[in-house]
Amino acid sequence: MPHILVDNLRKTYRVSERDPGLRGALRGLLQRRHRTVEALSGVSFALERGELLGFIGPNGAGKSTTIKILSGILRPDGGRVEVDGRDPFADRERHVARIGVVFGQRTQLWWDLPVGDGFDLLRDIYRVDPQRYRKTRDELVALLHLERVLDQPVRQLSLGQRMRAEIAAALLHEPDILFLDEPTIGLDAPSKLAVRDFVRRANRERGTTVLLTTHDMHDIEALAQRVIVIGHGRVLADSPVEALRAQVMAERRLVVDFAQDATPPVQVDGATVHSRDGQTLVLDFDPKQTPAPALIARIAGAHAVEDIRLEGLAIEAVIARFYAMHGAAEA
Amino acid sequence: MGPRDLARPYVAAFVSRFLQMLQYRTAALAGFATQCWWGGIKVMVFAAFYSGSAIAGAASSMSLAQAITYTWLAQGLLVLMPWLGDPEVAQAARTGAVAYDRLRPVDAYALWFARTAGWIAARLLPRVALMAAFAAVALPLVGLGDWAWQLPANAMAGAAFLLSVVLGLLLSTAMVMLLNVATTAALNERGIQAVATPVVIVFSGNLLPLALLPDAWQTALLVQPLAGLFDIPARLYFGHLSGWHALAALGLQCFWIVALVAFGRMAMGRTMRSLQVQGG
Question: Which residue has the higher pLDDT, B211 or A282?
Answer without folding.
Answer: A282
